[in-house]
Design a protein that fits this description.
Layout: H1 4-8, H2 22-38, H3 42-58, H4 71-78, H5 87-90, H6 105-109, E1 119-124, E2 130-133, H7 134-138, E3 144-151, E4 156-166, H8 167-174, E5 182-187, E6 207-211, H9 212-216, E7 221-226, E8 229-230, E9 240-242, E10 255-261, H10 268-272, E11 296-299, E12 310-311, H11 319-322
Parallel strand pairs: 1-10, 4-11
Antiparallel strand pairs: 1-2, 3-4, 4-7, 5-6, 5-10, 7-8, 7-9, 11-12
Bound molecules: ligand MTE.
Cofactor: Mo-molybdopterin
EC number: 1.8.5.-
Protein name: Protein-methionine-sulfoxide reductase catalytic subunit MsrP
C-alpha cells in the first residue's frame, strides 16, 4: 500500500488505467469503429494498423522511432519529483557486462554489436512457436512511449522515456499452453562481437526470467527505442525487456530467445550469487542486499544537488499496478 509519507512527498504513481495512454486507446477505438462500419474482420484490422504504421515510418528520419506520445505528459505530471534523466547519461552510464564491467565500457565498445539481421525465437510451452525478424517485431503492436523509473540493484536510478509495446501483446500471439508458468529471456552471447564475454563474471549467455503473470502485466515492456530514437546498442539494441518494478538486471538486453517453461528458469545473477540476487528481485526498500542497504537510491544526474539520496519506493513506486501479483507472499523470503 502507498504510505502516507509517499503521499505527502507526492510520490504516488498513476493507476493502471493511466498506463494505456489516451491516444493509444482512442486510436484503437477509432480503428475498431471503422472496422465495425465496414464489416471488416480482425485480420483486416491488423493490416490496417500495419499500413498506418508503415505510413508513419515512411516519413521519419533514419535512426528515429515514431511512437504515440501521450504517456510522457501524464507520467511527468503525476510524479512531481521525477524528471527524465538526460539522454547523455542514459546512454553513457550503463551496465552491459558483455561489453565490460565499467559503466563507460558499453558506450565505448558496443559499436561492434551487429543488430541486423536479428531474429528472436519464441519457443517452449506455446501453441504457436515462431521465429520473428526485427521487422515483424517492430510491427507486432503499436509503439508507445512510456516514461519509467529504473532502479539498479546497485543503488542508483534513472527516469527513461522508452519506446516499445507491452510484452502481453507478444504473449497473446504465441498462445501459451496450460503448462506455461514462467518466461525465460536469453540474450545474445557472441564472442566475436562482445569483448566482455572473455571475463567469466557471469556464466554466459545472460539469462533472465519472469513468472508468466509478471510478464503479462501491462507495465512489462519490450523496448526498441528511447528518447524518440532507435535503441542505442549500449542500452540493449535491437530489443530489450523493461520491467520497471524490478531491479534493472531483470531487464535483459539484446534478446534472442524467449522460452515459456513450466519450471522456474535458472537466471544468470541468481546462479552467480543466489544470496544476493533472487529470482523475483522486486524493488523493495525493506529487503537489503547482503552488502548494502536498499532503503535509498542515488538518482543519476542529481549529483549537483548536494548528492542527496532519495527514498526507494516499494515496487519502485508501481505498487498500485503490481502489488496484487505478490499478495500473501513473504517478500523477504522470495527476494
Ligand atoms: N542485459 C545484459 N544482456 N547484460 C547485462 O550486463 N545488465 C542489467 C540489465 N540488462 C545487463 C543486462 C543491469 S544490472 C541493468 S541495471 C540494466 O540492464 C541497465 O540498463 P541500461 O544500461 O540501459 O540503463
Amino acid at each position: 500500500m502507498i504510505s502516507s509519507r509517499e503521499r505527502r512527498l507526492g510520490l504516488v504513481h498513476p493507476q493502471a488505467s493511466d498506463i494505456t495512454p489516451r491516444a493509444v486507446f482512442e486510436q484503437r477505438r477509432a480503428l475498431m469503429q471503422r472496422m465495425a462500419a465496414g464489416g471488416a474482420g480482425a485480420v483486416l484490422a491488423s493490416w490496417a494498423a500495419r499500413d498506418a504504421r508503415a505510413q508513419v515510418a515512411a516519413t521519419v528520419a533514419p535512426g528515429q522511432l515514431p511512437a504515440l506520445k501521450s504517456v510522457r505528459s501524464s507520467l511527468a505530471g503525476a510524479l512531481a519529483s521525477d524528471t527524465a534523466t538526460p539522454h547523455k547519461l542514459v546512454t553513457t552510464y550503463n551496465n552491459y557486462y558483455e561489453f565490460g564491467t565499467e559503466k563507460a565500457d558499453p558506450a565505448r565498445r558496443a559499436h561492434t554489436l551487429k543488430t541486423e539481421p536479428w531474429t528472436v525465437s519464441i519457443e517452449g510451452e506455446v501453441r504457436k512457436p515462431m521465429k520473428l525478424d526485427l521487422d515483424a517485431l517492430l510491427k507486432l503492436a503499436p509503439m508507445e512511449e512510456r516514461i519509467y523509473r529504473m532502479r539498479c540493484v546497485e543503488g542508483w536510478s534513472m527516469v527513461i522515456p522508452w519506446i516499445g509495446w507491452s510484452m502481453a501483446d507478444l504473449i497473446r500471439k504465441v498462445e501459451p499452453t496450460g503448462n506455461a508458468k514462467f518466461v525465460e529471456f536469453t540474450t545474445l552471447a557472441d564472442p566475436a562481437q562482445m569483448p566482455g564475454l572473455r571475463s567469466r563474471v557471469l556464466d554466459w549467455p545472460y539469462v533472465e526470467g519472469l513468472r508468466l503473470d509478471e510478464a503479462m502485466n501491462p507495465l512489462t515492456m519490450m523496448a526498441f527505442g528511447l528518447y524518440g530514437e532507435v535503441l542505442p546498442k549500449q542500452n540493449g539494441a535491437p530489443l530489450r525487456l523493461v520491467v520497471p518494478w524490478k531491479y534493472g538486471f531483470k531487464s535483459g538486453k539484446s534478446i534472442v530467445r524467449i522460452r515459456f517453461t513450466e519450471k522456474q528458469p535458472a537466471t544468470s545473477w541468481n546462479v552467480a550469487a543466489a544470496r544476493e540476487y533472487g529470482f523475483y528481485s522486486n524493488v523493495n526498500p525493506k529487503v537489503d542486499h547482503p552488502r548494502w542497504s536498499q532503503a535509498t537510491e542515488r538518482r543519476i544526474g542529481d549529483d549537483g544537488l548536494l548528492q542527496r539520496r532519495r527514498p526507494t519506493l516499494m515496487f519502485n513506486g508501481y505498487e498500485a499496478q503490481v502489488g496484487q501479483l505478490y499478495a500473501g507472499m513473504d517478500l523477504a523470503k522470495f527476494y
